[in-house]
User: Fold Pilus assembly protein CpaD from Croceibacterium xixiisoli.
Amino acid sequence: MLLRHKQAAAAALAISLGLALGACQSGGPAQANRSLNSVHQPVVDHRSFALDVSAGSSGLAAPDKRRLADWFTAMNLGYGDQVAIDGRSVSHATREDIAALVGQHGLRLSDGAAASEGVPPVGAVRVVISRAVASVPSCPNWEGRSANHLGNHTSPNFGCATNSNLAAMVANPDHLIQGARDTGDTAIMTSNKAIDAYRVRPPTGNQALSTTATTGQGN
Assistant:
């Protein structure tokens, strides 16, 4: 009789351990990620900023040039941004003035017309900055408080640090979507010019050593 009680107790203990193990396994994420690919990926968001400046047939007036230049500086205009003019009648002189200000930040004025809400005032031209911003909105994710994953899956926060740093450091967030496109003289091509010049130039050691007299004529 005592043996039967011991066997029943052991069976009950085994069942309880099995239920506890099942509860631990079901306590993880609904869809366990058992690969090394992070479910947290950068998301690219596009934003537009517009400024109306007065313009005429002879271009921008000096006060409007300063205002536009200050706006570009305040917006921290740089690589990855696109600057365009609203697709309405714009004089060639006005376009040249705006292109010159854009060129001071190492960019080119886009050939295409910009789309913006509303209509610019009469006698004004609208300058539009299009900017892409990359972020990982689902990070950080601290849902899994336990370090033990009995289902052999990664933690909910896996990949957040790497992809968040990538989104913060990428110069042009659009490259995360379609990669770098060949649009002419790219930054990589510019940097390769110095490398090619270093490789093509013959080593200085190939030339003969110059001779210098060690004795001079006496007075």
In short: Residues 213 and 219 are 17 Å apart (CA to CA).
